[in-house]
């Protein structure tokens, strides 16, 4: 049997500037790159036209081409990770396994079990920081505790960046791959179907970054990079994006730092992965949880055009503008008094760029229950938000063309009534 090292692709589906791949390709053994479609994850996806699975599949096709150009090939496996590695160990003499860190609870437990098995077999297991700039305990307060407020975290983050030698890793220039050829299972063989969605391009202009601070809040403008899905699945390097941001836009850089911040929260406060509010006292809230109103919100039929536009954009494209994400989240929690976890779960199902850390952080921000959250008494007024950010109704006309028609639904709840109701509910819950 060939002596090999394995590189396990997960949230890092690229050849370029990939830390773990660079380390693997620098090792003495030829590299067998693998990707595992994990049934434990896939079986939870009820919609078999899941755009994220399709995006991963398309990214793997591209990844496979890049590896083949360098003399190797990608093995794509559809089985539980432990079983996949056990079977590979029967086919190859595996000397080392390389990967990049993942920070979610399931991934941490999965990796620990694979590492334990590997070491019991005399196989080295190596994991690297790749999808963030700073992780775990690298950015802490003066008391060596994790930051739970963004502003001081971002200041420390920038200070650390300025005083750290960091570089991009030229993994794309190394060619130490095992010479072999493998079939890639089709989307249908994985039990999924094509969605027909058009996925965002990896390319965007420096001009967009330079004007980001001015234009980012206006959903009617195409003024955001749409890079979040590529960051989510690692088809682009975070180091490359930070390098582009420096000196061009502090605001755009801050958005990248928010991502590190939420990963940091997930790592240090793992209980949030179990559906518990970051501020646990907020779990005393008495939610109304009206299922008919939840359906109206999901389907973009609330009678509030800016809310409905956001939900229709999400349902049709898998994307929603960030300003509108805040508006629709606030509306669900504050106007309808529906548990933020319902909205979190719906976004998790629909968002192409779904990432647990950022999604949970955003929903808890809207509910007032998260770290560095909006205070509970801040209730977004959808009409004022429209006046400020979609004054010409460009965004609304695109997604809710019938908003002035007779058959468009009346508002599901009166704003002032909803505002008073939710403030009373929060005061009762929080004492």
TrEMBL record:
It comes from the Bacteria. The chain crosses the membrane at residues 20-42. Its cofactor is FAD; (6R)-5,10-methylene-5,6,7,8-tetrahydrofolate. Keywords: Chromophore, FAD, Flavoprotein, Membrane, Transmembrane, Transmembrane helix. Residues 3-133 form the Photolyase/cryptochrome alpha/beta domain. Belongs to the DNA photolyase family. This is Deoxyribodipyrimidine photo-lyase.
């Amino acid at each position: 049997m060939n002596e090999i090292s394995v590189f396990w692709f997960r949230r890092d589906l690229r050849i370029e500037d990939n830390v773990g791949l660079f380390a693997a390709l620098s090792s003495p053994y030829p590299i067998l790159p693998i990707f595992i479609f994990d049934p434990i994850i896939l079986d939870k996806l009820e919609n078999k036209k899941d755009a994220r699975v399709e995006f991963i599949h398309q990214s793997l096709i591209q990844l496979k081409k890049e590896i083949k150009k360098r003399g190797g090939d990608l093995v794509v496996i559809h089985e539980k990770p432990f079983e996949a590695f056990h079977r590979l160990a029967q086919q190859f003499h595996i000397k080392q396994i390389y990967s990049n860190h993942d920070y979610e609870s399931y991934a941490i437990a999965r990796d620990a079990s694979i590492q334990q098995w590997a070491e019991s077999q005399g196989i080295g297991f190596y994991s690297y920081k790749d999808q963030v700039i700073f992780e775990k305990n690298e950015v802490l307060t003066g008391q060596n505790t994790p930051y739970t407020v963004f502003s001081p975290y971002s200041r420390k983050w920038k200070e650390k960046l300025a005083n750290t030698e960091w570089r991009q890793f030229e993994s794309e220039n190394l060619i130490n791959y095992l010479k072999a050829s493998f079939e890639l299972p089709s989307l249908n063989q994985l039990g999924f179907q094509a969605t027909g969605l058009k996925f965002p391009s990896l390319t965007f202009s420096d001009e967009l970054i330079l004007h980001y601070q001015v234009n980012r809040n206006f959903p009617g403008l195409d003024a955001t990079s749409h890079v979040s899905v590529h960051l989510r699945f690692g088809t682009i390097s975070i180091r490359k994006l930070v390098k582009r941001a420096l000196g061009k836009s502090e605001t755009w850089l801050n958005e990248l730092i928010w991502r590190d911040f939420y990963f940091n929260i997930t790592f240090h406060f793992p209980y949030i992965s179990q559906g518990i509010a970051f501020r646990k006292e907020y779990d005393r809230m008495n939610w109304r949880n009206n299922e008919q109103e939840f359906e109206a919100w999901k389907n973009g039929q609330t009678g509030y055009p800016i809310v409905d536009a956001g939900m229709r954009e999400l349902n049709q494209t898998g994307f929603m503008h960030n300003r509108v994400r805040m508006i629709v989240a606030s509306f669900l929690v504050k106007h309808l008094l529906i548990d933020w976890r319902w909205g979190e779960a719906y976004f998790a199902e629909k968002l192409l760029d779904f990432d647990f850390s950022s999604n949970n952080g955003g929903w808890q921000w809207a509910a007032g229950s998260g770290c560095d959250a909006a205070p509970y008494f801040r209730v977004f007024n959808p009409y004022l938000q429209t006046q400020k950010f979609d004054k010409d109704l460009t965004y609304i006309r695109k997604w809710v063309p019938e908003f002035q028609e007779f058959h468009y639904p009346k508002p599901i709840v009166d704003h002032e009534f909803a505002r008073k109701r939710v403030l009373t509910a929060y005061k009762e819950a929080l004492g």
